[in-house]
Amino acid sequence: MFFVKIHKKLGREVLAICDEEILGKTLEEGDFYFEIKEDFYKGEKLSEEQVRVLLKNSPNYNLVGKEIIKIALDLEVVEKENIIKIKGVPHAQGFIV
Predict the structure, then answer these.
(1) How far is residue 49 CA from its own chain's centroid?
(2) What's the maximum distance between 2 C-alpha atoms anywhere in the chain?
(3) Residue 61: what are its φ and ψ, rounded to 5°?
(4) Can you tell me the mean pLDDT for 55-59?
(5) Which sign does the torsion angle of CA 43, 49, 50, 54 carry?
(6) What is the pLDDT of residues 26-43, one digit of tens each?
(7) C-alpha–C-alpha distance, residues 97 and 81, integer Å
(8) ∠ CA(7), CA(8), CA(9), 5° rounding?
(9) Considering only CA atoms, which of 82, 62, 69, 67 is closest in space to residue 7?
(10) pLDDT of residue 9
(11) What number is the average pLDDT over the span 50-71?
């Protein structure tokens, strides 16, 4: 399962998805400090099938977690070179300007 929240601002949407088990955690490594905040990621709890549909149709996204990144790679939404890892947890963002 995944937590999904859609943020709407200035006529644009950003799809925020994280793996269920990492919500609320803080990742620190070197210069990186990343909070997987509930107010940003905690929306609906959705299945893999549901997040696949959303990812296929969203040009703007913020993804964190091994499972959601694996799905994004499978759908070719994300390329490996655009993924960073913090404490072994992958993170990717994509935005259409």
Answers:
(1) 15
(2) 35
(3) -150, 160
(4) 89
(5) positive
(6) 999 888 889 999 999 999
(7) 20
(8) 120
(9) 62
(10) 83
(11) 95
Residue 16: HSE in the Cβ half-sphere, 13 Å Cα cutoff: 14
Convert the pLDDT of each residue in 74-92 to its tens digit: 999 999 999 999 999 999 9
Q: What pLDDT shows up at residue 6?
A: 95
Residue-number span of the structural domain to which 73 is assigned:
2-94
Collapsed DSSP state (helix, strand, coil) of residue 59: coil
- Strands (DSSP E) found in the chain: 2-9, 12-19, 26-29, 32-35, 44-46, 61-64, 84-86, 89-94
Residue 10: how many other CB atoms lie within 10 Å: 4
3-class secondary structure, 54: helix
What CATH number is given to the structural domain containing 60?
Answer: 3.30.1860.10
Domains: count for the chain:
1
**Whole-number Å distance between alpha carbons of 4 and 68:** 11
pLDDT at 97 over 60: no
The pTM for the full model equals: 0.92
